Amino acid sequence: MARVVVDVMLKPEILDPQGKAVHGAFGRLGFDGVADVRQGKRFEITLDGEATEEQVAEIRKAADTLLANPVIEDYTLHVEGDQ
Amino acid sequence: MKIGVVTFPGSLDDVDARRAATVAGAEAVALWHGDADLHGVDAVVLPGGFSYGDYLRAGAISRFAPVMETIIKKAGEGLPVLGICNGFQVLCESHLLPGALIKNHHRKFICKDQPLRIENNRTAWTSDYDANHEITIVLKNQDGSYVADEATLDRLEGEGLVVARYLGQNPNGSYRDIAGISNERGNVVGLMPHPEHCVETLTGPSTDGLGFFTSVLKAVVAS
């Protein structure tokens, strides 16, 4: 069974309050030298069978309509094992 | 005159919205997310709350509920639709309104009485307010920060589609202090603060919210 991974991130121009909170905690815990933290979402999608071109195209469609909101987010998609 | 109020799993303010519709003089109709039939209502309210637990993104999963397919279609035909708080998030996720709502910039939940200015009183939901009417209604949200790209913000302001703006200190980081917007036709309105909690002096800071519900009664009668 193949696995498709979709990584979703807020667009760079959109404020990320959660990332800011994590960045603040870095400083308090003494993890120095960190300029910025952005928090995203990772979806691991296990397919019934192989990652055919059609199947990956379907997942891309799902990413466009459901997993990411193109108004505020970008995503990348890859088939696990491909990279 | 029937105002339908949708209940999604995790809606919180559906009962108050139905009560506000009744106080305004309408017949309130409970609509269910899983039922695509709007049961002959003349207008629809998408209430506040945490539908589907805000999983994925606030409003992202509700957008695909059977009832939303009908609402999206009818909104295109002119059905008045008001999305309050989580309902506003659902309208943005449905692309009935531009932009999106993200977490408050200070990361804390807000619950306060919030002064607003009604900047557009030509929509189906705001005609009972005077131009630039200042009102105070309840604001309570977690993902209340309205964001959109600069071109969209310029267009909203240029075309007078900003329905309400926060007065005083910006409570949640919304771009350009935007509290509510409408579509070009003025039948679809999204608002982060809660007019439905402010229709009776016993339980709200004012009765300033009632105008949203009385406005839509007139809009329906006029059409």
TrEMBL record, chain A:
Pathway per the UniProt entry: Purine metabolism; IMP biosynthesis via de novo pathway; 5-amino-1-(5-phospho-D-ribosyl)imidazole from N(2)-formyl-N(1)-(5-phospho-D-ribosyl)glycinamide: step 1/2
Keywords, in A-Z order: ATP-binding, Cytoplasm, Ligase, Nucleotide-binding, Purine biosynthesis
Catalytic activity: N(2)-formyl-N(1)-(5-phospho-beta-D-ribosyl)glycinamide + L-glutamine + ATP + H2O = 2-formamido-N(1)-(5-O-phospho-beta-D-ribosyl)acetamidine + L-glutamate + ADP + phosphate + H(+)
Main location, first listed in the record: cytoplasm
Record's subcellular location: Cytoplasm
Pfam families recorded: PurS
UniProt KW Transport keyword: no
Keyword Ribosomal protein: no
Enzyme Commission code(s) on record: 6.3.5.3
Similarity comment: Belongs to the PurS family.
Function text: Part of the phosphoribosylformylglycinamidine synthase complex involved in the purines biosynthetic pathway. Catalyzes the ATP-dependent conversion of formylglycinamide ribonucleotide (FGAR) and glutamine to yield formylglycinamidine ribonucleotide (FGAM) and glutamate. The FGAM synthase complex is composed of three subunits. PurQ produces an ammonia molecule by converting glutamine to glutamate. PurL transfers the ammonia molecule to FGAR to form FGAM in an ATP-dependent manner.
The protein's assembly and partners: Part of the FGAM synthase complex composed of 1 PurL, 1 PurQ and 2 PurS subunits.
Protein name: Phosphoribosylformylglycinamidine synthase subunit PurS
Organism listed in the record: Kribbella orskensis
Taxonomic lineage from the root: Bacteria, Bacillati, Actinomycetota, Actinomycetes, Propionibacteriales
